[in-house]
Amino acid sequence: GAAALYGPLATVSAKSASRLDSSRMPVPFRQKFVIPPFLAPYKRGIDPGDGQPVNYYRVTEQSTTMEIVPGIKTPILGYNGVFPGPTISNDQGTHAVVTMRNQLPRKHPVLGTPIATSTHLHGSASLPQYDGYASDTTLPGFKKDYHYPNVQDARTLWYHDHGVHFTAQNAYSGLAAMYIIHDPVEKALLPQGEFDIPLAISDIQFQANGSAMYDDHSHSGLWGDVILANGVPWPVMNVKRRIYRFRLLNCSISRSFQFHLSTGDPLIIVATDAGLMPKPQPVREYRHANSERYEFLIDFSRYKPGQEIVLRNKSNPFNIDYNHTDKVMKFVVTDEPFNTNDPTARTIPTVLADSAVMHLARSQSKITRNLQVERKNGEWKLSGKSWADVIASNFQWAWANPGLDDVEIWEIENRSGGWFHPVHIHLVDFHILSRNGKPAFAYEEGPKDVMYVGENEKIQVIMRFEHHKGRYMVHCHNLPHEDHDMMIQFRVGLKEGEFDPNDPIKAARPVWDTP
Ligand code: C2O
Ligand code: CU
Q: Do you know which Gene3D superfamilies this protein is assigned to (predicted)?
């Protein structure tokens, strides 16, 4: 029965379409910066199991249009009809139940097939469907509840579509949003409220008719020529003369960035994917792969009112006639007042958080596994395998099988030639033990869930497989690579053939929503 839900490998290619004329392209630094809406729970309750508060949310996946380029309506898929979707924010320990309603077209405009989705909370696990298992899809007209325990330390997560073989197109079309967990340590140390800025950066390219162009260059990747900050091309943000915190998510489907400030002043990195680092790391420039999150502080008190500072990217431009991919957004310093008694306004903490994963020692590891990142016969593989092998085994075959609470070292080796791959491991936080036999970059010295595996690099990470049994994915987060078909799974705390009640394939199925 379920097999009918797994679409064939397919591509919506717009190679033959012409690009939007450069005279109609958005001009950098003309548009106003916006922050995506925060989602309010429609109901609050108490979990009868552990007595913890529960916030209930409703999100609807919709096909709509959005004015990204001034004067042009671009078709998008959006959570609640917006891109980025609404941000969900909770305190650690407050559970969230998100009812995800798929109200997307039953006929994809190009493929003619229904747009099936699976929602992954990247950076956590959800119950009982694990966390957006790719093949556990919901069809248009159905809905499903995702349960997020939020037991983890403060961090910037995000939710995005993970529908099997269509993740790249669905996320590129707009199904991506931020998700925040706060905790008391983070609240005491870092800017909050209007000085705590969610910042989702992505790229896009446009066809002459204003719709987004999807060309993944034979599944190599998509590099757009327009850079969006929270869905707005190259915006301008007014800032007060104090310290701001930016939660930067790169939600591009393939592009990595090298961020730096036009002034040469440092970005002070305070958090990696899975939360606060042991101590801040100032950098002039750093490399930020798609799906990674870095939080950094910028101290605007060192500038005069009226001064303009540009967040830049060291771009690797393709052969296009309208190239501003070296720019991201602009800050303009104002003399507007702010509460100077707020200790986070002027002080950069010297010590941040002491995350458990940073203390895992090599001697605790039960096994070191080697994962090869490679390309064979035009398909991307992980140690010679792909999601096709998982499907062929009726979702039983797993590349690794750690026990619950086991510590392991995984060594990821890039044998794919001139490509980099952001490799994401579901369920766990890891610590990068080494990069090519040397220590990780200082700015990566924090809890992570994605690693940038550069050309010919070999990375060792250590992690504990805690919290949940089950089957979880490991994949490349260059999404055209993931879809074709660079994704496999590991099994935690279960024997081969053993199902637990939370198994994604046997657990809660989507339910009929509205006709
Ligand atoms: Cu952000 Cu498996 O994904
Ligand atoms: Cu890849």
A: Cupredoxins - blue copper proteins
